[in-house]
Write a structure and sequence with these properties.
The chain is mostly helical. It has one domain (2-193). Helices cover 75% and strands 2% of the residues. The chain has 7 helices and 2 strands; from the N terminus they run E-E-H-H-H-H-H-H-H. The protein has helices at 16-36, 41-64, 69-77, 80-84, 90-110, 117-155, 168-193; strands spanning 2-3, 7-8. A two-stranded antiparallel ribbon has the order 1-2. Strand 1 (2-3) and strand 2 (7-8) form a beta hairpin. Helix 6 crosses helix 7 (168-193).
Length: 194
């Protein structure tokens, strides 16, 4: 597989690759920082750490169609941050990891490989960061955003039906929204649906 920037697509992530996307990464992190500013200091720091890795994952998934294992492992190792900050309980985090991994594994099986293995791997640390309730919200937000984006791209003939659509960027965006505002969004839906 060839890439515009590298010739061959790198199969493994190394930190020198970050140098090639650092300005894009900073440009994408700036709105995240401004958007997360009203959060408490602990939540802001946790979201900043999570977003830093998720933005890299999203950039490389859009660029190469790959979610690198090293970045997923880094996100998993950093999942101790919300645990130490008191944002999530250990039991909720473990339930989120099990739900995330099993749910996306099932979706991968049902789609006959249409959902990438990297998305399944990414679901596990996202479940730890978010817990099971916010992971379900993340998946809902990611699915809706992906459907809208894909529908618009098809409508404006920017892609064909057979063109693969990376799901990692939508999972990353859904995770950031669910982490920062999951409780408020769930409360809104509970009031709206009742």
């Amino acid at each position: 597989m060839l890439s515009r920037h590298y010739g061959e697509i790198p199969l493994h992530f190394d930190w020198s690759m970050w140098m090639d996307v650092r300005s894009l990464w900073c440009g994408l992190m700036l709105p995240v920082v401004l958007w997360a500013w009203p959060l408490s200091l602990a939540e802001f720091c946790s979201l900043f750490v999570m977003a830093g890795v998720l933005v890299l994952i999203a950039i490389y998934d859009m660029r190469f169609g790959l979610i690198y294992d090293r970045l997923v492992i880094l996100l998993l190792l950093l999942s101790v941050v919300p645990l130490f900050c008191g944002h999530i309980a250990l039991g909720t985090a473990l339930a989120g990891a099990m739900l995330g991994g099993s749910l996306l594994s099932g979706l991968r099986w049902l789609s006959h490989g249409g959902l990438g293995l990297g998305d399944v791997k990414l679901a596990i640390p996202l479940g730890v960061w978010l817990g099971w309730e916010d992971f379900l919200l993340c998946l809902l937000l990611a699915s809706v955003a992906g459907l809208v984006y894909g529908g618009l791209m098809l409508a404006f003939q920017q892609m064909r039906r057979q063109t693969p659509l990376p799901f990692g960027p939508f999972l990353a965006g859904g995770a950031m929204v669910a982490f920062g505002w999951g409780g408020a969004i769930r409360s809104f839906f509970e009031v709206w649906l009742c």
